């Protein structure tokens, strides 16, 4: 099998282009049904965030279809119009990209906190739709593990490290302080809740818009007021700041409606959605200052940060090697598992002979045998993977076959 991916992100594509390739959950489910029918495909995962869209595949190495052409065909787009925005990665290049991405090394905000959750959610949603295979499961699991290690063992950023915190920092640097300001958050999903909490932490008076569903009232962060989504234009003129962060396919703020408003003061409007929530052109109105997710690119490289990035890269290199130790020898795993089990049985069998001559009770004897079996498996695991890292593939396979034969002969002679 081969790991392949294509991606479109903030480095090559502006917000509007990224919006074209943004996937809702419903569209993702439809994509999984379509992509799993492609020749040679055994697993697929789609990652869609405000900064990027990535399509991952586990495929037969001989599979030759164009991922860009296939994706554009699914979305009814002309691939030639968008080909230059995409990056395509295969094999180790793709693997290394995922590990660096999950650790936050490829984000607009270095080390940002949300990417780990987003990658994990993408994996879980693919699993829920029976879209992944074992290769992608292990790859994404180890990438998430390495990302958590980087978060724990390095310091790439401050504690408040999301796009909303970056937005508020930038506004403060421009003279807009949220303390005591009246703010409205449109949207009550993950980003909406993060925005409401960040604003409250910085002393703002926050109101959150909610839609009324048949299931009843929607939870909002404690300490916020609520209004119905349909009442947003009534509240807006009295606001100092409006944050819109929804997954709506339509504009939450339209120019036609905003032109009718006469705010009490200039209003800052922050659009954190992809595709856009705020209709282009609203920023041209004199009463409104509009920012989107691409307004908050941050570049602050210090010597301490360089050292931490270097440390993060070392961690990722270790974890990537662990993935390839598994990946290159995955066909041997059933045999290795059997060897470990056989080694444990062999040790326990030898110890049982000793116990027959002793007066130990059953309880302690069983505990000792259990511990001996576990220790034998751990020893074999250390031995086999130590050999795997030091021997060529052919030699390692010969060693595994030889060990299997030795254990088999030993068990035959012992009467097993």
CATH topology of the largest domain: Beta Polymerase, domain 2
Strand fraction equals 5-15%
What is the CATH architecture assignment of the largest domain?
A: 2-Layer Sandwich
The largest sheet, given as strand count, sense and whether it forms a barrel, is: 6 strands, parallel
β-strand number: 10
The share of residues in helices is 40-55%
Oligomer classification: single chain
* Total number of domains: 3
CATH superfamily of the largest domain: Glutamyl-tRNA reductase, N-terminal domain
Structural class computed from helices and strand pairing: alpha/beta
* Shape type: elongated
List the keywords.
416 residues; Rossmann fold; Beta Polymerase, domain 2; 15 helices; 14% strand; 3 domains; six-stranded parallel beta sheet
How does the SSE layout of this entry go?
Elements: E1 2-9, H1 15-20, H2 25-35, E2 41-48, E3 52-59, H3 67-74, H4 79-82, E4 87-90, H5 91-102, H6 114-128, H7 134-153, H8 163-173, E5 182-186, H9 190-201, E6 205-210, E7 225-228, H10 232-235, E8 241-244, H11 255-258, E9 267-271, E10 288-292, H12 303-328, H13 333-356, H14 362-390, H15 393-413
Parallel strand pairs: 5-6, 5-8, 6-7, 8-9, 9-10
Antiparallel strand pairs: 1-3, 1-4, 2-3
Helix pairs in contact: 5-7, 5-12, 6-7, 7-12, 13-14, 13-15
How would you portray this structure in words?
The protein has about 425 residues and is an alpha/beta fold. The chain has 3 domains: about 150 residues, 2-Layer Sandwich (Beta Polymerase, domain 2); about 130 residues, Rossmann fold, CATH 3.40.50; about 80 residues, no CATH class. Helix content is about 50%, strand content about 15%. The protein is built from 15 helices and 10 strands. The strands form 2 sheets. Strands 7-6-5-8-9-10 form a 6-stranded parallel sheet, covered by helices on one side. A 4-stranded antiparallel sheet has the order 2-3-1-4, sandwiched between helices. α5 packs across α12 and α7 runs antiparallel to α12. The protein starts with a strand and ends with a helix.
